[in-house]
Write a structure and sequence with these properties.
mainly beta; about 10% helix; 8 strands; two-stranded antiparallel sheet; six-stranded antiparallel β-sheet; 60s Ribosomal Protein L30, Chain: A
């Protein structure tokens, strides 16, 4: 496992940035260990709800975790607003960094992650494979 710290800048889309991080670092399997920072927009899909809810305010990321494969991510996040209320759910595209987001990624060079249809759940799920051996 290799640790890879990452800092996102104001205006970046959090999910897009995480999904595009794999290519420059040559990763095939990534865990998002934790993330903190601030957002101006959070788009979260709550459990059992089909479409994300958009929150617009000065938001603080309390938790951020998940997996990233070359063909997509599965991320969960909790955020608090100015009144201290906490919301959490699946991270959708459109979460916009307000001042900064600091993330710790764990790169797993011996594995390959992919998101594929799972006939049992009916959803795109994480499939884990061993990486090809290097000569």
């Amino acid at each position: 496992m290799q640790a890879h710290p990452l800092r996102l800048q104001p205006g970046q889309d959090l999910r897009d940035a995480l999904e595009h991080t794999m290519h420059p670092v040559g990763a095939t399997a990534v865990f998002v260990v934790q993330g903190i920072g601030s957002l101006s927009v959070a788009r979260l899909r709550f459990a059992g709800v089909e479409h994300p809810t958009e929150l617009r305010a000065d938001l603080e990321i309390l938790t951020l975790a998940g997996t990233v494969a070359r063909n997509g991510a599965h991320l969960h996040m909790s955020v608090s607003g100015p009144d201290g209320r906490v919301f959490g759910g699946h991270v959708a595209h459109g979460c916009i960094v307000r001042t900064t987001v600091e993330i710790l990624l764990a790169l797993l060079p011996d594995h390959v992650f992919s998101r594929e249809p799972d006939p049992q759940t009916g959803f795109m799920e994480l499939f884990i494979r061993n990486a090809p051996r290097r000569a």
